[in-house]
# Entry
Amino acid sequence: MKTSVLSFSLAAVLAAGSLPAFAQNAAVVNGKPIPSAKVDKLIAGTGQPETPELRDRARNMLIDRELLLQEANKRGITQRDDVQEQLEQARLNVLAGAVFEDYVRTHGASDEELRKQYDKIKSQFGTGKEYHVRHILVEKESDAKALIAKIKAGAKFEDVAKASSKDTGSAVNGGDLDWANSNSYVPEFSAAMVNLKKGQMTDTPVKTQFGWHIIELVDTRDAKIPTFEEVKPQLQQMLMGDQSWQREQFQAMMKSLKDKAKIQ
# Structure
């Protein structure tokens, strides 16, 4: 009896001693542990709140990766020259991207470059006015003329737009296109719109690439152009997303590195 109790106690101690190791690992694949910290890091990278389902998917993904790595080692694939070369190229690509990202973060775009971008955006505000318009879009000129006559006879523009406009996005709102500058629309639409007075509707249908429009000008206002300082952070992001600017910056970075390097 004493021997049995002693054996049981020893097994319990050994099991208790092994618990922390298991707690630290999310899984053990053919003797290779996958730390729980790796699962935590993978979940954190998704930006999603942790759930049991997400944790299970992350754990299975790491298990799959480990199985593939073990199989590659088993088959000798990781030692092949062509694979080694591709792995080294992938490593260099990651490092090059990280170096360039850090370079752009520390150097950024100059105020001169940002102001050029700002001037381009300012030009998109057109005449300096914003227009609040409604429209009705139909396929045929004859249909547009019939609807104009119907509105002039007393029908509400909004009701006609809801019932007849094929622009489903605005039709549900009575044809309302909200506030926009003149450059927001195709030239034919814009030309007709800017010639209207507040509360006026086009007497004849307006033809564009989309069909035939009936346009009503609800109101106008002076466009508020944000200052350079107000939009500077957004300008920086826009410029950093420009591929031609990225190429110029990369070339500038490489020139700087070569100028400072001792190359023999």
About this structure: The domain at 126-222 is CATH 3.10.50.40 (Chitinase A; domain 3).
